[in-house]
Amino acid sequence: VKATGTGGAYNLAPGYYRILPVAVDGISHVASEENWLTVPGADEESDDELRERCRNQFNLVGNYHTDAVYRSMIAGVAGLSIDRIFFEHEAPRGPGTANAYLLLDSGVASAPFVDAVNDYINTQGHHGHGDDMQCYAMPETLHDLA
Q1: Is residue 142 part of a domain?
Q2: What pLDDT score does 15 carry?
Q3: Which of 46, 51, 76, 78 has the largest count of CB atoms under 10 Å?
Q4: Residues spanned by the domain of 11
Q5: Which residues pair with 139 in a beta bridge?
Q6: Residue 69 sits in a domain of what CATH number?
Q7: What is the pLDDT of residue 49?
Q8: No. of H helices and E strands in the chain?
Q9: Which domain of life is it from (predicted)?
Q10: Does some domain include residue 144?
Q11: Other C-beta atoms lying within 10 Å of the C-beta of residue 41
Q12: Residue 146 lies in a domain
């Protein structure tokens, strides 16, 4: 399936499509299932997003060098804004490990999308010596606001 246009507005959540607006011969139903979004669309970068990306580049020479490098790589591959990438530094799998959580406007990132980012970082060799960086979809949580 390909979007009819570009940008974040076409990153529709699973289950968004359930009804065919016009009958099509040979097609009985439609549905956007889980993991249907493999490459999310991205909007043109705003001035605020450019400002955040520039700030991230200045972190390259500071204490958060590794975060800035990974944030820049992930944003480049995934088409995400850098403010939607969150790190867990507490060595989740032992020394030298970290997790990055990816947040999409359309909801939870699909498995093929996250797999593509992990492939770029780990399989294609875009990681530091001894680094174990794994990317995940931002986990959903439910809260009772009553």
Answers
A1: no
A2: 67
A3: 78
A4: 1-43
A5: none
A6: 3.30.70
A7: 82
A8: 3, 3
A9: Bacteria
A10: no
A11: 17
A12: no
